[in-house]
Amino acid sequence: MKVRKAVVPVAGLGTRFLPATKAIPKEMLTVVDRPTIQYIVEEVVASGIKEVVLITSAGKAAIENHFDYSFELETYLAQKGKFDLLREVRNISRLINVVSVRQKEPLGLGHAVMVSESVIGGEPFVVVLGDDLVDAEVPCVYQMLKIFERLEESIVAVQKVSLKEVHRYGIVEGEEIEPGVYRVDRLIEKPTVGATKSNLAVIGRYCLRPEIYDCLHRTLPGIGGEIQLTDALDMMRKERALYAYEFKGRRFDAGDKLGYLEATVTFALEHQDIGGPFKEFLKGLVKNLD
Ligand code: UTP
What we know:
Elements: E1 5-9, E2 30-31, E3 34-35, H1 36-46, E4 51-56, H2 61-66, H3 71-79, H4 83-94, E5 97-102, H5 109-114, H6 117-120, E6 125-128, E7 132-135, H7 140-151, E8 154-160, E9 170-178, E10 181-189, E11 200-208, H8 212-218, H9 229-239, E12 242-246, E13 250-253, H10 257-270, H11 275-287
The chain binds uridine 5'-triphosphate.
The site of uridine 5'-triphosphate has 21 residues, from helix 5.
């Protein structure tokens, strides 16, 4: 079963990043020199997937435009002989085929995935959240696809978090069946303190079998009155196997101010042009901290 498509939900309101996100989608906020969404699409492309289904909402047109041709800009750059910039701009639109589907109301991540059904049909697919960045030697989506090829069952990416933080995540309980791979026995969305002993938190990468749509249709609104993908996955694991994979890499929640800053510093330090000078700047800054 080959995975050919990635669903990238970007229809959320981005309230944690207001007022920056009042008129600009949070996925268009720049991390060093590219908008967050470009990192996501580059990870998908580097994993061998060529089709992206964007789940959008009103006010997100800038994201679609970013991956479209820009005739006026390209003509201007060609006329001015700015060929390096022209190549850069064209590469973005050549990266991938983008299809957009509107989520008419922000009814939750589960609902956002559900509206992709007509475009995905009966094949497996990955879901990559538009504001979740992963810094990894091997792209996180690629790591997951390798496991999916073997197990042929749905997989959620997880990371260990401190027990104080579990209330912010979907949490997986399960048994480790091979290094880094867990058979999921239960999934709980944002558990209250003490409701679980597990600290395996689901992050924004999923590889899903199409049976998830049937579960999503049967999922009632959960925490926050939203249709939660976690709840649909918990329903699915009762009907067929579901695995969690502790990916290799570091994840940043770029939809959150602190996570965004951590991502910016990390990617700036790795940047081939500015990494060196930026490191020197940070060293000077640290020396002057009390
Ligand atoms: P978040 O909860 O991080 O996004 O959802 P949000 O709602 O935009 O952010 P805040 O909490 O108000 O700051 C995780 C992902 O699911 C998408 C978001 O765009 C984000 O990529 N999402 C969420 C949807 O596409 N539709 C929804 O109804 C909810």
